[in-house]
């Protein structure tokens, strides 16, 4: 695994790349990709960072694991490649977007447009074996991505962290809420959403209100 990551992030995270746990992680990922089909493809593992520089990051959405079906994962949490059927969680994200901002339901599920505006779409684990959810958890990725969150929290302010579901909410301990914003709700998965824990959260409009309040430009959440 070559760490093909935007230079702005490399400057912030170089210490992580030099640590023993990360070298072990690289060895593990290389071995997995050599033996099995894994997602996303190698050149897209760090896509979240390459579409959203450290300086530009102003919103963070935290996912858990890449999609593990063929052609889905593109390195951005909850996002799929153009032309791929929308997974259930992404459908519910778009339904909430539609209800919150009165947008047309998007045709494509590729969220690169959000990332290019400063939304870091960060999975806690950046790789996965095909058809085996969670197969690359507890191998070092979580240490790395927790340190990404900590670096953003330490070096920036007026950021909006969107914590969707129990797993993401555990990351709140890494965030200083006296200088950054946290919005919490249920996970957009059908299991959570259908029990009333997702719809109506209005996180998209609330995020833009917080950004404007801080003197920052709002996110254009539309995906035309």
TrEMBL record:
One Pfam family of this chain: UDG
Family matches, as InterPro entries: UDG_fam1 (IPR002043), Ura-DNA_Glyclase_AS (IPR018085), Uracil-DNA_glycosylase-like (IPR005122), Uracil-DNA_glycosylase-like_sf (IPR036895)
Annotated keywords: Cytoplasm, DNA damage, DNA repair, Glycosidase, Hydrolase
EC annotation from Swiss-Prot or TrEMBL: 3.2.2.27
Subcellular location: Cytoplasm
Molecular functions (GO terms): uracil DNA N-glycosylase activity
Uracil-DNA glycosylase-like domain residues: 50-211
Alphabetical list of CDD domains matching this protein: UDG-F1-like (cd10027)
Active site feature: 65
Keyword DNA repair: yes
Catalytic reactions on record: Hydrolyzes single-stranded DNA or mismatched double-stranded DNA and polynucleotides, releasing free uracil
Lipoprotein keyword on record: no
Family indicated by similarity: Belongs to the uracil-DNA glycosylase (UDG) superfamily. UNG family.
PANTHER family named among the record's database cross-references: URACIL-DNA GLYCOSYLASE
Job description of the protein: Excises uracil residues from the DNA which can arise as a result of misincorporation of dUMP residues by DNA polymerase or due to deamination of cytosine.
Protein name per Swiss-Prot or TrEMBL: Uracil-DNA glycosylase
